[in-house]
Specification:
Length: 243
């Protein structure tokens, strides 16, 4: 897991870069591919052989009332997704996961899976809402109910793809890439933790996960101490009454 602000931003950057490209491909080819090709066939039958040729024939991807090239679509979605991930998605998903799971007791994989699920639950509706504005057919006029219906349709299309791609492909790959890029910092942190544990000391937490895990660990230690004192008091009471 990222241990400082820079690492969190790099982790979000890796995630968003891969996710945006995957979503643009999914949206253009899987969801709207046949529609784009049928529209292109009406303009020029020879330009409807593939989705890319259809987009070229149409003049680009319809976005904000204009036809834009694919790279512009990727760039705009990246800006929205990266800002939303850093400002809302990542912090909120961590807080939601921590309400259900205890990092000091639960397996790290379970806690990370909870964060992924919470992130999908936040980012998918949010980005679908932004996409509903981006790809709204403004040429036909604007209607709020149509916008909300398009938003709901996009959520239904995107959520299954978001969940399975993030859970089984994107996030595992990003975590492997992140550990490789920051392997020296991670190794140094682990070595420092081992040295501190050998000396009976604890390192200052480097991120929210470690901080909350330390809090839960301390709470568990206090509970154990209180339980021990309670048992000793009961034993003492029994000994006094026994006399």
């Amino acid at each position: 897991m990222p241990q400082n602000k820079f690492q969190r931003m790099m982790f979000a950057l890796l995630t968003v870069v891969i996710t945006v490209h995957a979503y643009v491909f999914y949206s253009l080819y899987v969801v709207n591919g046949s529609t784009l090709m049928s529209v292109a066939a009406q303009i020029d039958p020879s330009g409807a052989g593939s989705v890319l040729s259809a987009i070229r024939t149409i003049g680009g991807v319809y976005m904000f009332g204009h036809y834009c090239p694919i790279w512009a679509v990727v760039l705009v979605e990246f800006c929205f997704a990266y800002a939303l991930e850093n400002l809302v998605g990542s912090p909120a998903s961590f807080r939601l996961a921590i309400r259900v799971f205890d990092p000091s007791k639960n397996h790290p994989m379970l806690f990370e899976s909870a964060i992924i699920c919470a992130t999908v639950g936040i980012m998918c509706p949010a980005m679908s809402f932004i996409a509903a504005w981006m790809y709204y057919p403004y040429y036909a006029g604007f209607n709020l109910l149509t916008l909300l219906a398009n938003w709901l349709k996009l959520v239904c299309f995107n959520f299954p793809f978001a969940f399975f791609s993030q859970m089984f492909f994107i996030q595992p790959f990003v975590r492997v890439a992140f550990k490789f890029l920051f392997r020296r910092q991670i190794a140094a942190r682990e070595q420092a933790q081992e040295e501190a544990a050998a000396q009976g000391e604890t390192l200052r937490p480097q991120d929210e996960t470690e901080a909350i895990a330390d809090i839960w660990k301390r709470i568990n230690e206090l509970d154990a101490d209180i339980g021990h004192e309670h048992r000793k008091r009961k034993e003492l009471e029994k000994a006094v009454h026994g006399k």
